[in-house]
Amino acid sequence: MAQRDATHDPARRSWVASANAPGTDFPIQNLPLGVFSTHGAGPRCGVAIGDQILDLTAAHAAGLIGNAAVAEPSLGALMGQGRAASAALRAEVSALLSEGATPRPELLVPMATARMHLPTTVRNFSDFMASYDHCARLGVKRDPKNPLPPAFRQLPVAYHSRASSVRVSGESVIRPHGQWQHQDGSMHFGPTEAMDYELEMAVWIAGDNALGEPVTMASAPDRIFGYGLLNDWSVRDVQRWEMPPLGPFLGKSVSTSVSPWIITAEALAPFEVPAAVQDPPALPYLDSAWNRSHGGLAVRMTAAILTPRMRAEGAAPFILTDTQFAAMYWTAATMVAHHGTNGCNLLAGDLLGSGTVSGSEETARACLAEIGLTGPVVLPNGESRKWIQDGDEIIFRGRAEAPGAVSIGFGECRGVLDPAIAWPA
Question: Residues in domain Fumarylacetoacetase-like C-terminal (predicted)?
């Protein structure tokens, strides 16, 4: 479990000037981890600081960082060492970058010149359904008297998704082909007519447990390496047709976009808040005093759209969703604990999606399927959208905020929808 320490001090400043700018996503109180490359050099681990990246491989070679795991081309080895290792690394990096330390500008790489990669090879990917408001809104269409799945109030429902199609922010998504049934009962196969986004939180797993060894609520918080943004691209017409027998399949496996920077659980300690009240109370295996008092996270999350016409006109992205992660019915710790209840061996580098982070406010509908319940959204330039169209870019942002703490950002998770390919002859 994360503890507040000197790395969270609101008065702490960095010798990297851009890290001290008001409103920056990456002040010295953040220090998120990622994997980047530059021209002529392969992927390596880094820390975001202001508009720069601290090259951890170079810092280790200079004898300034002790853990050799940071010299690997991914964060997988560090994740495997567990939360104690990431906490120790955070303390070292904070001291290295703090005002008063000897500046080492040769260890910095401008973000503008770097290419970001997936933080690690995604071992497994499971996607949850943890928002009461998301489930209730869409469930009313299916069954007005019983909009929630029977198990929703008892456990965090999830399904195993496709790890191989997880992609880093910035990679485009190709409009997929699929099969679905029209309202008149006729069958159709072709490019989807109902492409959607889902604004979610990514939860990255630290450490391993042996197959058959349960994960408990006492250990679950320490299995969370960190958090990011996740777009669970959804093919709604295909999804509706395939869902009733076994759940999502081709409606979800086309692509999943994740933000490149992992905000460590240690960085988010000042933003822990009480978990949402559950009715009925969770069974004991999904309950703990820590979760009730600290299981939620105060992170504001937004989803915006930038259409080709808006881009040509120089318009700013239009915010479709403005929501709060703290309102989720199930916390990240309960997701981890429930996932490992049966002894499932959660592995370092596993990825969990929180499910759509929808809130009770109209502005907090976190996908077009929800927004469209009251009609297509009308953009400031007069365009309207029921579903994502070719060339549209979806942009997620997140920001943790709390009284007395320096707010920290998550960076961006972006993706453009490209046209479908021609179906092979």
Answer: 126-398
Q: Considering the chain, tell me which residue range(s) the CATH 3.90.850.10 domain(s) occupy.
A: 125-418
Chain mean pLDDT for the chain: 97
For residue range 153-196, list pLDDT tens digits in order. Answer: 999 999 999 999 999 999 999 999 999 999 999 999 999 999 99
* Closest C-alpha to 47, from 111, 98, 100: 111
CA distances in angstroms from 343 to 210, 232, 330, listed in the order given = 8, 26, 20
Q: What is the pLDDT of residues 279-306, one digit of tens each?
A: 999 999 999 999 999 999 999 999 999 9
**177 given a catalytic annotation:** no
Contacts of 95 (CB under 8 A, 6+ apart): 101
pLDDT band at residue 377 under the 50/70/90 scheme: very high
Positions at the binding site for Ca(2+): 127, 198, 200, 232
Q: Specify whether the CB–CB gap between 233 and 256 falls below 8 A.
A: yes
* pTM (global) more than 0.90: yes
Q: How far apart are CA 181 and CA 188, in angstroms?
A: 6
CA distance 358 to 367: 8
Beta-carbon contacts of residue 367 (< 8 Å; ≥ 6 apart): 134, 196, 197, 198, 199, 234, 321, 356, 358
Q: Which of 134, 294, 338, 339 is catalytic?
A: 134
**Which residues belong to CATH 2.30.30.230 in the chain?**
6-117
- pLDDT at 245 > cutoff 90: no
CATH match of 125-418 with 3.40.50.150 = no
Answer yes or no: is pLDDT of 2 > 80.
no
The closest of 8, 115, 94, 112 to 52, measured between CA atoms, is 112
Grade residue 145 by pLDDT with cuts at 50, 70 and 90: confident
Structure tokens at 4: 């507040």
pLDDT grade, residue 40 (50/70/90)? confident
Could you tell me the fold of the domain covering 6-117?
SH3 type barrels. (2.30.30)
End-to-end CA distance of the chain: 55
Q: Summarize the annotated binding site for substrate as residue ranges.
A: 142, 239, 356
Binding-site positions for Mg(2+): 232, 252, 256
